[in-house]
Amino acid sequence: MKEYFAFQWHITDECDQRCKHCYIFSEDNCKKPDAMSWEQMQETFYNCLDLCEVCKRLPYFYITGGDPILHPDFWRLLALLKEHEIPFAILGNPFHLTDEVCRKLKYYGCRKYQLSLDGMRETHDWFRKPGSFDCTLEKISCIKGAGIHSVIMTTVSGVNIKEIPAVIDTVVEHGADVFAFARYCPTSGEKDTGMTPQEYRELLDTCYLKFKEYEATGCSTYFNKKDHLWTLYEYEKGVFKIPEGTEDGMIYGGCNCGNCHMTIVPTGDIYACRRVQNSKVGNVFTDRIADIWVCQMEAYRNYTKFEKCSKCELLSWCRGCPAVASGKEGNFYAADPQCWKEVIL
């Protein structure tokens, strides 16, 4: 059975919000939003399919922005995906979702629609814009009603870390299909997430117990342990064990950067990871992605360069979040700022 190759495809920067932690506008909040033309979108699409043919994987697109639904050729792109029977998910805002829009998304093959919830009402609306919190919760049922999986993602930082348990309760109460959180990646303006390793581990402790309690009640929300430091946490608890018969030098889990993922932004620039600000590896309008995958992306597959993780027995399964490390140190291979494990360097 073939594995998937994931493309996080930003078709436009156009957005109804200017979130305080958004990496698109982190350096210039007044920048003119970029967007691909229809011709450029077609060129990008077939360039991506070419890579999948070369690496013998199936394509999976995460269509995002900005808010992708604001692109004038959004539905035209979905029709192209449907024509080729390509699975996709949408990462967007709640403001333009209606029952009719969600039914249309389902018709074109949308499997998941991801919304963000970055704290309780006051905090979330401060991050994004007034009314965003209530609108986000309201649209969960709209998405589910069309037969699309509703996903809620939270970006955790020192600003909202104490609100995460309440966010989990709220998400479960509103019936979201999936909940996950990832950490804030510092941008050029700041170099710290505002969380110590111990504070973050305590959050995982609290969430782990809450997840177990909900699962015991038959809760329908799936708790996706997206952050790879969950692997370290569950390893210490004895939940995760290193499988027997594994080979040295093989990668079995952890960050997908360099393995089966890349990001394309509206200018055509290709990033190893969108959250790693200095990870541009080419441009989809001038480069063959398959060539970039073999050549430039090799710089993100040198696992012996991880300054801390390469000395850890969990190298093949964890590696924390190189994007957070890069945001703080400017170095993809630096130690994860929230990793609490003591390793002899």
Automatic annotation (TrEMBL):
Domain of life: Bacteria
Transport recorded as keyword: no
Keyword match Iron: yes
Keywords: 4Fe-4S, Iron, Iron-sulfur, Metal-binding, S-adenosyl-L-methionine
Cofactor: [4Fe-4S] cluster
Chain ranges of the Radical SAM core domain: 1-213
InterPro entries: 4Fe4S-binding_SPASM_dom, Aldolase_TIM, Elp3/MiaA/NifB-like_rSAM, PqqE-like, Radical_SAM_PqqE_MftC-like, rSAM, rSAM_ACGX, rSAM_sf
NCBIfam families for this protein: rSAM_ACGX (TIGR04340), rSAM_more_4Fe4S (TIGR04085)
PANTHER family in the cross-refs: PQQA PEPTIDE CYCLASE (PTHR11228:SF7), RADICAL SAM DOMAIN PROTEIN (PTHR11228)
Protein name: Radical SAM protein
